[in-house]
Amino acid sequence: MCNHSFIICRCEEVTINDIQDAIAAGALNSHEMKMSTRAGMGMCQGRLCRPLLEALMPANHKESVHSPSKLTFHQPVRPVSLAKIVPKENSI
Question: Residue 17: pLDDT band by 50, 70, 90 thresholds?
Fold first, then answer.
């Protein structure tokens, strides 16, 4: 039995029901699912939910094994403090 309120993407609070609705509305691949539900677009950039999202795609909608996932990470992958980027100036 499937709990339709089970959250797949914690960052954007996308549920299984949201994913199933996107597929029923015509999302044919993970990229279209991402654009219609915002799953994978949160703080973690899909690092936590991408495997679940790709597993939820029906077999007849799955992308070719040879094409890379459309649920890619975007920069910055990890937060960096400004102190590491900008050198301190000598005070005069």
Answer: very high
Q: Is residue 2 part of a domain?
A: no
Q: What is the DSSP string of the chain?
A: ---TT-EEETTTTEEHHHHHHHHHTT--SHHHHHHHH-TT-STTTTTTTHHHHHHHS-TTTPPPTTSPPS----S-SS---HHHHSPPPPP-
Where in the sequence is the domain holding 58, given as residue range(s)? 7-85
Domain-embedded: residue 78: yes
Predicted TM-score (pTM) of the model is 0.60
Segment 46-73 shows an average pLDDT of: 67
Query: How many domains does the chain fold into?
Result: 1
